[in-house]
Specification:
The complex is a heterodimer of chains A (261) and B (270). Chain A has eleven helices and no strands. With 261 residues, chain A is mainly α. Chain A has a single domain, classed as ABC transporter involved in vitamin B12 uptake, BtuC, CATH 1.10.3470.10. Chain A is globular. Helix content of chain B is 30%, strand content 23%. Chain B contains nine helices and twelve strands. Chain B has a six-stranded mixed β-sheet, sandwiched between helices. In chain B, strands 1, 2, 3 and 5 form a four-stranded antiparallel β-sheet that branches. In chain B, helix 6 links the parallel strand 7 and strand 8. The longest helix of chain B has 18 residues. The chains are: A mainly alpha (261), B alpha/beta (270). Chain A: Involved in the high-affinity zinc uptake transport system.
C-alpha cells in the first residue's frame, strides 16, 4: 500500500475515533446545527491564520471560540430563535471567510481542499496535529464525562449539585472547536458535522449505555473512513465526500437491522 | 422542633450542629421584567420540618423554590443557607432526550461519585428497585418522581426540596410519593420544602403551610390554616378543581402587586 494511503487511513481513523464520543454528545445535546455553524466559520479562521502568519489551525480555534461566545451572548437576548441565530452566524461567517480569502490574491489557496477536505495529501505534521490534539480532546472529554452527561440530562439539577454548568458548556464548545480545527483537512469544513453525527446516530439503536454508544460510534466512523477511502482510491472519487457517503450508507444499513428490546 | 444531639451531629455533617433554620429568606424579592413575582417574602425551613407552599397559579411558588435552590437570583433581599447545607432537589418533571441511552441505575450515578451499594440502597428506599435497568425514557411520570427521590437521597440531603409532581402523576401516586417522603423525613430527620396545588394530599404530612400569592398571605399549622377564611376561599369549595377556584382576599392587590388592605384582617402577613 502506498504511503499516502496509510497516512490517509491513520488521519481519518484518528478523526473518527475522536468523533465517536464527541459526536454522541452533539447528538444528545441536539447541537448538530451548532457544530455546523462553528465548522462554517473555520474558513474565516484559516484566512485569518494566513493574514497573521500563524498556523491556520490556531486561527480556526480562535474564530470558533469567538463565535461560540458570541452565540451565547446573542441567545441571552431571546428575541430570536436559536436556529435563526445559528443560520445568520453560519452563513455570515462562511461568506465572510470566502470574501476575505478573495482579498488574499497573492496567496494560492486550494479552496476546495478546505471546503471538502483533501485526505490524500495528509502530511506527517497533520498526523501529529490529529493525534496530539485528539489525545488532548479525548483526555478532556474523559475527565468531564460524568459531569457533561449530568449537564446534558438536566442543567438545573447539575447546578443544584454544585456543578459549574457554564464552564462545562464552554469546555464542550472548546472540544468541538478543537475537533473542527484538526478534522478540517480530512473532510473539509462543509462535511465535518456529518462525521460527528452520522456514526453516533447509527450507533444509537444498538447502544444501552452512553459509553457503548460512544465506542460504537467510533468503530462505525472508522469503518466509514476505511470504506470511503478504498472507494475513493478504486474509482478515483473525492475522498471526504466518499467517507461521508460510506457513513450514511452504514446508517441506512444499521437502521434495517432489527434490534430486540 | 428538637435540636439535633451532638452524637447525631458527629455522624452527619457540621451543618447539623448549628441551631436555627436550614435555609431561609429575608425580604426576598424577585421580578420578571416589570412583574413582581415575589414581594418581600420571608420563609424558613427548620431541621426535620415539612413546609408546604400553596397558592394559585402564578403565585410565585416555583420561583420561591428556585430562589432557595440558587437557580433564580434575588432582585432584593437575600436567600440564606446553613454552611455546607446539602440540598436534594426533586424537579417537577424531567425528560431525558431519547437519543441518550440511559438506565435508571446509571441516571442515579451521574450526579456525584457513588458506590453501586449506595445506588441500590437509594433505589430501595424510594421503592424503585425493579426499575433499575429500565431506560429512563420508558418509565411513567409517577415512577420518574420516585427515581428523582432516589436521586435526591443519594446526596444525603439535609433539606429536600420538591416542586409538585405534574399532572402526569395521578392523585394516588402523589399520595404514595408524599407518604414515602414523610417516611424519609422520619428516618433521616431532614427538612422538606414542597410546593403543592392540592393541600388535601399533603395536609396530614405537613408541619407548616405557607399560603403564597406573591407575598406570604398566611402561614401556620395545617389545621389552623385550614380554618383560615382565606384558605377556605382558596381550597374549600373547589377541592382539586383548580381551574375554577376563586382567590378571595381580605385585601386587594394594587397594580404594582402591593397589598392594599380593605379591612383590618386577621390574616398574618409574613
Amino acid at each position: 500500500m502506498d504511503e499516502f494511503v496509510i497516512r490517509a487511513l491513520l488521519a481519518g481513523g484518528g478523526i473518527a475515533l475522536l468523533a465517536g464520543p464527541l459526536g454522541s454528545f452533539v447528538v444528545w445535546r441536539r447541537m448538530a446545527y451548532f457544530g455546523d455553524t462553528l465548522a462554517h466559520s473555520a474558513l474565516l479562521g484559516v484566512t485569518l491564520g494566513f493574514l497573521l502568519g500563524v498556523n491556520p489551525m490556531i486561527g480556526v480555534m480562535v474564530v470558533c471560540v469567538t463565535l461560540a461566545l458570541a452565540l451565547v451572548a446573542l441567545q441571552r437576548r431571546r428575541n430570536l430563535a436559536a436556529d435563526t441565530l445559528l443560520g445568520i452566524l453560519s452563513h455570515g461567517s462562511l461568506s465572510l471567510g470566502l470574501v476575505a480569502l478573495a482579498f488574499l490574491e497573492t496567496l494560492r489557496v486550494d479552496l476546495m481542499a478546505y471546503l471538502f477536505g483533501d485526505i490524500l495529501s495528509v502530511t506527517d505534521g497533520d498526523l501529529m496535529a490529529i493525534y496530539g490534539g485528539g489525545a488532548v480532546a479525548l483526555t478532556g472529554l474523559a475527565l468531564l464525562w460524568r459531569r457533561l452527561l449530568a449537564v446534558t440530562v438536566d442543567e438545573d439539577l447539575a447546578r443544584v449539585e454544585g456543578m459549574s454548568v457554564d464552564a462545562l458548556r464552554l469546555a464542550f464548545m472548546l472540544l468541538i472547536a478543537l475537533v473542527i480545527a484538526i478534522a478540517m483537512k480530512i473532510v473539509g469544513i462543509l462535511l465535518i458535522t456529518s462525521l460527528l453525527i452520522i456514526p453516533a446516530a447509527s450507533a444509537r439503536r444498538f447502544a444501552r449505555t452512553p459509553e457503548g454508544m460512544a465506542v460504537l460510534a467510533s468503530v462505525l466512523g472508522i469503518l466509514a473512513v476505511i470504506a470511503g477511502l478504498l472507494a475513493s482510491l478504486n474509482w478515483d472519487l473525492p475522498g471526504g465526500p466518499s467517507v461521508v457517503v460510506a457513513a450514511a450508507a452504514l446508517f441506512l444499513l444499521g437502521s434495517l437491522v432489527p434490534v430486540r428490546r | 422542633m428538637s435540636t439535633p444531639s451532638l452524637l447525631q451531629g458527629a455522624s452527619r455533617d457540621a451543618s447539623t450542629l448549628f441551631a436555627g433554620p436550614l435555609a431561609w429568606t429575608e425580604d426576598l424579592t424577585v421580578r420578571f421584567g416589570r412583574r413582581t413575582v415575589l414581594d418581600r417574602v420571608n420563609v424558613a425551613v427548620q431541621p426535620g420540618e415539612v413546609v408546604t407552599l400553596i397558592g394559585p397559579n402564578g403565585a410565585g411558588k416555583t420561583t420561591l423554590v428556585r430562589a432557595v435552590l440558587g437557580l433564580v437570583a434575588p432582585d432584593g433581599g437575600r436567600v440564606l443557607r446553613r454552611p455546607n447545607l446539602r440540598v436534594g432537589y426533586m424537579p417537577q418533571r424531567l425528560s431525558v432526550d431519547r437519543t441518550l441511552p440511559l438506565t435508571v441505575r446509571r441516571f442515579l450515578a451521574l450526579w456525584r461519585p457513588v458506590t453501586a451499594d449506595k445506588v441500590e440502597a437509594a433505589l430501595e428506599e424510594a421503592g424503585v428497585t425493579r426499575l433499575a435497568d429500565s431506560a429512563v425514557q420508558t418509565i411513567s411520570g409517577g415512577e420518574m418522581q420516585r427515581v428523582l427521590l432516589a436521586r435526591a437521597l443519594l446526596g444525603e440531603p439535609d433539606l429536600l426540596v420538591l416542586d409538585e409532581p405534574d399532572q402526569a402523576v395521578d392523585v394516588h401516586g402523589q399520595a404514595e410519593l408524599f407518604n414515602r417522603i414523610a417516611q424519609v423525613r422520619q428516618r433521616r430527620g431532614c427538612g422538606v420544602l414542597l410546593v403543592s396545588h392540592d393541600l388535601h394530599t399533603v395536609m396530614a404530612r405537613t408541619d407548616r403551610v405557607i399560603c403564597l400569592n406573591s407575598h406570604v398571605c398566611c402561614s401556620g399549622r395545617p389545621e389552623d390554616v385550614s380554618r383560615h377564611p382565606e384558605y377556605h376561599a382558596l381550597f374549600g369549595g373547589h377541592a382539586r378543581d383548580l381551574a375554577v377556584y376563586v382567590h378571595h382576599h381580605d385585601h386587594a392587590h394594587a397594580e404594582d402587586g402591593k397589598v392594599v388592605h380593605d379591612h383590618d384582617g386577621d390574616c398574618c402577613h409574613g
